[in-house]
Amino acid sequence: MLLLVSLVTFGIFFWLPKLAGQTTDQIAAGYVGKAPTQQAIEDTKERLGLDDPVVVQYADYLKAIIVGKDFKAGPVTDHCPAPCLGYSYRSSQPVLETLLDRAPATLSLAVGAAVIWLVGGITVGVISALRRGTLWDRMAMIVALSGVSLPIYFTGLVSLALFSYSIPIFPGGGSYTSITENPVQWFQALVLPWVTLAFLYAAMYARLTRAGMLETMNEDYIRTARAKGLPEKTVVTKHALRASLTPIMTVFGLDLGLLLGGAVLTESTFGIPGLGRLAIDSIRSGDLPMVLGVTLITSTSIVVINLIVDLLYAIVDPRVRLA
Amino acid sequence: MTGTAPAADTAGTGEAPTAFLEVRDLKIHFPTDDGLVKSVDGLSFQLERGRTLGIVGESGSGKSVTSLGILGLHNKRNANVSGEIWLDGKELVGASQSEVRRLRGRDMAMIFQDPLSSMHPFYTVGQQIIEAYRVHNDVSKQVARKHAIDMLGKVGIPRPDQRVDDYPHQFSGGMRQRAMIAMALSCDPELLIADEPTTALDVTVQAQILDLIRDLQQEFNSAVIMITHDLGVVAELADDILVMYAGRAVEQASVDATFHRPLHPYTWGLLGSMPRLDRDRSERLLPITGSPPSLINVPSGCAFHPRCPYRDLNEGKSETKRPELVEVEPGHKAACHLPLGRRREIWTDEIRPKL
Amino acid sequence: MSTSKTPAEKVSVDKAPAGEPRPIREGENLLEVENLGKHFPVTAGLLRRQVAAVKAVDGVSFSVRKGETLGLVGESGCGKSTTGRMIMRLLDPSFGKITFEGQDITKMSQRRLRPLRRDLQMIFQDPYSSLNPRKTVGAIVGAPFRLQNLEAEQGVKKAVQEILELVGLNPEHYNRYPHEFSGGQRQRIGIARTLALKPKLIIADEPVSALDVSVQAQVVNLLEDLQDELDLTYVVIAHDLSVVRHISDRVAVMYLGKIVELADRTDLYERPMHPYTNALLSAVPIPDPAQRGERKRIRLQGDVPSPLDPPPACRFHTRCWKAQDICKQVEPPLVELSPGHQAACHFPENTTVSATDAVAKAAVAPGAAAAGDAGSASAADSAE
């Protein structure tokens, strides 16, 4: 799996500058800053190893992650301890530090939204399945359909317009505060982004849950559970829901992993300084190490979360344990 | 009018019967887009404790829907149910769902055809039996677990104290059905309904399970309804037999009468259709022509008439008038237009010699 | 590249080892199966190493005479269906030899098998899933003609309608779809499809077990009528002993991948030698309440063991009430204990000789050099 992550990284490492149509001179010039001299450009190329073959650069990069790296800037030597992801071409800040700085915002957004959409989506899905064909079911599925089809920047802006600017219940965009600084503000600032992001996913999960429940409720073992005389509530939660949750778990692993790499649209719409915005900004300015850092975080979180999901799967479904 | 109604006409009076289980004029209809599916269309029977009733029929005869209806397990959203079901003095069709639910598992229990799909794959066998026991008995988990182990031992599972923690997929087919039986009997129900309990099993395992059901019935003195398409199974187990066709009973008699003096052409057809190991091999089987009817489009008159070789002997009544299930001999009912004497003749002269 | 060969070379290369199919007369062996086996590997780990094998079929031998019906019975997991599929070459055998019409088809390439597919057909259990729901009956039954590029004399449609009539379906239903038919009629469509090319051998895998009792009898009768009319040879695979007795001339009983008994129908059902056959017969419920409690009852303990790890020597010894030490050590061979009646048991019933005695005798008779003392030693040797 680490192999997978590094391969993904490598692919981007190799292709991004080429796709951007930049020469190494241009990259180095961008890094040096205003009015670059030819000497400064050469120094920079030397320092960052930009003229080395791609494979060597990649090896350097991997090595830096594992053992750290020394950057020589004239007489001064900066030691970047492992895991070293390099320095931003733009701000000259260490990439890792920037990532760690931005991660809490994304984490708050993703986890908070995930809780809302899981609870909301599954509840709506279960109720819809149990009341199949009723007005409730049809309304819920229409809302779910709109949730899936409306883009975040639309629902996000509408919710901002309604609940922040027209009726100022929640603060506007760009008001994110760290939880350690001011938990109340943190919460207030995140309510709208959470709900907006969760709406999209909840809609999807409601449909998934409904389909899964409808299938499970027709299983023979549900009939057995009823034949035992279990109350309907137990039949639904303990027997039907548990069996319907396994496919949802798989999808959830993928979704959460992706979100942890940054919810680009949501973060942009609400001005949250998370990984998604960092990625956008870095791509725009050709800040290769930063882009790589975000990519690495995204792939790692997807892989790790899927590993956790696989382990959970074995706990939930005893038949998997033998395989 | 004399004012005394014949005993058979107690149906619909709403009076509590003396029999342990009595079903009166039960109808279970499902409206669908294609039309009204009359799965069960006017079924009546009685069953006492300690007795076994075999319900025999082909697919679509309504035998499984009947059993689900008694337990209140049919799809309630789209079913129209009428008639009466009396279990030990309590009427079930008009009872509230929660009342029926409390009876399920405690007073009446059910075993299903496919034990693998009928057990929840994510819970251990023990957990599922414990759950069944604890719904109706206010006991601690430890007590329930001990009871589950006892039950598993009783149905013949070796090392029950260890197997109790296995999952259903770790059991073999026969063991799973034993576990299902243990689960069904965990609350000592007085009525046990077994819906094709051995159809999915191998023949040597089938024999074990049938023995087990017979032994447990003697021990618990419960009433058993055995639903099957296999005449051999009911011949081994049942005291009385109900033959169903297109949602109605066509013949109802003791097991001896059903096999030795059947009085309905459909029963003759069933007996002639099956190759038998206890007879010399016949050159040809005597099948019933055609296929079981669709329950949406039940044939007019006698539902069996399109497949009945004797339909022309009734001066057109077969096609127009539905024969009622009437007592033709003490304890022997049949629904057929053929004159009784003629039927006895056909059985003795034409059918029996060829079986 | 095979295309570089001239057609002539190819034919000679392909045909040489197998031999020409030769015409088979009534009563001669149409199909011969020798020591046929199928082991399915069980793999584990990242490298997919083989850790075990499911011995689904483990060396069965039998022959089928032209015009007769051989029944293969046994419980689930005994390998009867796998055997049928290997004969059809739907599965490749792990070892053994299949000879059809005197021609070795064990390793024949699928291309060379194609003409043989006309002669070898299969009827499946489930009439619901084995018919393509989007094709008309005419297309389903006519498909074999197109696959084999055959032109029927008066056109495919006419030929298909004749077959439909033959199996008792209305020829006017040519353009209907499978869902418009009942279960029994669908099985008739399945049978019609196999008959399209006038096959010689039909393997019927549980042909009636998914059908209602009254319809089962119709299909059983149909199969028998077709056999008489079209001079067919059947291998009928089924778990229902009553159906097998009715339809078969000879019956082979399988247990855990082996044939334990093979005999004429009457012999097998009236004088079963193998305890397993006996137990099977005694387990069949009899539709006669008068016989309740009258019959001899043999109840086997437990379920069939896993074919992944079958018991050593005689595979039945774990459930057999007659088992003794020798059954756990020496595998009894399948030998003829009375004319036409083979059984693999150390302590057979309904006979005076045991398998070991018979083998000892057989070893004495032809062997002048090897077989000297017919004692326990030679019995143990020949059993291996």
Descriptive report:
The complex is a heterotrimer of chains A (323), B (355) and C (384). The two termini of chain A are 20 Å apart. Helices cover 75% and strands 3% of the residues of chain A. Chain A folds into 2 domains: 1-80, no CATH class; 95-320, MetI-like fold (Orthogonal Bundle), CATH 1.10.3720.10. The radius of gyration of chain A is 24 Å and the shape is elongated. A two-stranded antiparallel sheet of chain A has the order 1-2. Chain A is mainly alpha-helical. Chain A has helices at 2-20, 24-32, 38-48, 54-67, 95-130, 135-149, 152-166, 183-217, 220-227, 232-260, 264-270, 275-285, 288-316, 318-322, and strands at 69-73, 76-80. In chain A, helix 5 (95-130) runs antiparallel to helix 6 and helix 7 (152-166) crosses helix 8 (183-217). Chain A has 14 helices and 2 strands, in the order ααααββαααααααααα. The longest helix of chain A is centred in the middle third of the chain and has 36 residues, at 95-130. In chain B, helix 6 (173-185) runs parallel beside helix 7. In chain B, the strands form 2 sheets. In chain B, strands 6-7-8-3-9-10-12-11 form an 8-stranded mixed β-sheet, sandwiched between helices. Chain B has a 4-stranded antiparallel β-sheet with strand order 2-1-4-5, with helices on one face. Residues 1-11 of chain B have low confidence and may be disordered. The longest helix of chain B is centred in the middle third of the chain and has 18 residues, at 203-220. Chain B folds into 3 domains: 17-107 and 191-238, P-loop containing nucleotide triphosphate hydrolases (Rossmann fold); 121-188, no CATH class; 265-354, no CATH class. In chain B, helix 7 links the parallel strand 7 (191-195) and strand 8 (223-228). Chain C is an alpha/beta fold and 384 residues long. Chain C folds into 2 domains: 18-119 and 199-285 and 292-384, P-loop containing nucleotide triphosphate hydrolases (Rossmann fold), CATH 3.40.50.300; 131-198, no CATH class. Helix content of chain C is 33%, strand content 21%. Chain C contains 13 helices and 12 strands. Chain C has helices spanning 7-18, 80-87, 110-117, 137-147, 156-166, 183-195, 213-230, 241-247, 265-270, 275-283, 325-329, 355-364, 376-383, and strands at 29-44, 49-65, 69-73, 95-100, 103-104, 120-123, 201-205, 233-238, 250-255, 258-264, 335-338, 341-343. In chain C, the strands form 2 sheets. Chain C has an 8-stranded mixed β-sheet with strand order 6-7-8-3-9-10-12-11, with helices on both faces. In chain C, strands 2-1-4-5 form a 4-stranded antiparallel β-sheet. Chain C is globular. At the A-B interface, helix 9 and helix 10 of A face helix 2, helix 3 and helix 6 of B. Chain A: Its main location: membrane. Chain A: The chain crosses the membrane at residues 107-130, 142-166, 186-208, 248-270, 290-316. Chain A: It is a multi-pass membrane protein.
